[in-house]
Design a protein that fits this description.
6-stranded mixed sheet, 442 residues, single chain
Length: 442
Amino acid sequence: DIPIQFRVKGKWTPEMEGTVSVTPVGESVMDQRSAGARTDRFPLTFVKQDGDEAIFGAVVPGANTHNIVYAARLADGRTRYPSEMHLVPRPVVTKNAAWVLLPEFCGTRPEGGRYEVPQPRGDVIGIPGSKVRIEFAVDGPRHKAWLELRGPEKLDDKRSEEDVPSAEVPKGEPLPMAIKEAGSGYVAEATFDLVDGLSGYRMIVKDEHGFENKPQPRRAIRLVPEDPPTVTLLRDTFSDGASFDVEGMPVPLFKKDQKKRSQIRIPYVCFGPYGLGKAQVLYRVLREHESGKEPEEEEAWVRAPLPEMQAGRTAGAFDLKTGVFQNTGDGQSVPFHAMPADDPRQLGRTRGGGRVHLDINGLIDSKGNPRQLKSGDRIEYCIEVYAQHREPAMSTPVARSETRVTQVLDEKAFLAWFQALQDEDQRVKDLEKKQKGIFERK
């Protein structure tokens, strides 16, 4: 609706009522009496007193035209000349888009600048240290635009999701946006830090006539904690396609003069939504509990950093199902590998893994002393993976895999275990053969 007001001088009373005549441009007020002329009339009523004068007004419905001509009449008075009004639509916000600019510890794109993550429908969800870039289309370079950042009036860390949220209010002054050419049109753009205390933003645009958009669209903002990486130990076999699972298999303890290596193979895979930083293997020797005695305190974990391995020219693709490269041999290890992104413009190092070969002849205890193992000892181990490094280092999210336990046997005990395994395998095959013969005779 369009409010039109007139200043009335002379004799007047609040009870007076007049009319306002409105004619679309192209139909002259002077020719209203001619055939086919279209003029709408609206009541003109008292609005307020202003000294010895009065303000009378009318409300005219919005017209589907760009101009109108109007005149007013009140008692025996009238406007001296018709007036013309140019009607323009209010500016609107269209094509709203938002991106989260990931923290600096996630790295930068080849051309410079932070990695960006598009935000569907303009609603923003990001982690601490991020920035937010907002963009929307405007009709022309003479328009001005602002972002009104909003947040709860009162911050209450103890408030639960079931509690009624505090009223949302503007946070600081509106943020001016830059108007720039984009393709065949223009866009408004602004960037701000994603900080605690923000819950949304409103988009405001004003045209060259001083009219603002109404309503002013609001979008949500959520600051969420960074999820830690995930790391999982993989199933391991003797070779590709083998059905025998290495998990649970004891490790032979060779004498040092035999020049044979006793190793525990630990394949794993890891994922980090904001990039993987480093990995390490944790191990300790479990203490035997003797019946009738109090359980001894568990040994502290020993941490061994895992060097990162890059893909060589002949390594082949990294396989997340095995934790090694396509051409990695059974006797080769891949301590830790973080996969780059297929598109360098996208964040990489979000997937990785490896296959650790833990040499049990080189183990140490938590004090750094060499560990002497004996047949029957059990070694517990797991993999720990960190997100991308940042300062302070203690704030870096870290995750740990499930643990596994492998028993150490001397050569004689290991051969006995292996013989028992073969005997059991043969009994299973013989049973399957007998069952097959019974069904064939039927």
